[in-house]
Amino acid sequence: LRAGRPPKEFLRFAAGVRARLRVEVRWTERYPTASLRARERRYRRAVRSMGRFLGREWRDPDAMRIASELGQRLATLFTFVRRPGVSWNSNEAEREVRVAVIHRKVSGGRRTARGAWVLERLLTVWRTCAKRQLRFWETVSDKLGGLPQPGLGPPSAGPAS
Asked: The Transposase IS66 central domain covers which part of the protein (predicted)?
């Protein structure tokens, strides 16, 4: 970390990245019903513009690092331009993982990689069921090949006796 005001070159770099993203966000908002062909042309143009910008000779170490990271993600950076219905921000995706983050913080983390994998899958199914207005336990039981049994439901949240 560097203390104080960021170097001028980094500020120019950040402004350039923001400006290119802002132009494409405004385009998608102005033309929400654009044809797939128009979207593809606009996507290629945005990728070329950002690629040229990122490829400049940056001397600031933070600008160099971020330019490299964005360059590696350039093909997906403007997916929102190419695909109708894809948001330009990650707000919804971040809300989706919030449940898992809260669970991890409250429980002190997951003990094993396999446990983390299982929890991630269960939370994904849980969120999908909520969005589709399906009952989680019945869906899981059905998909695992069992039939819901009377009294089968979520585990008790109360203390074990």
From this structure: 24-116
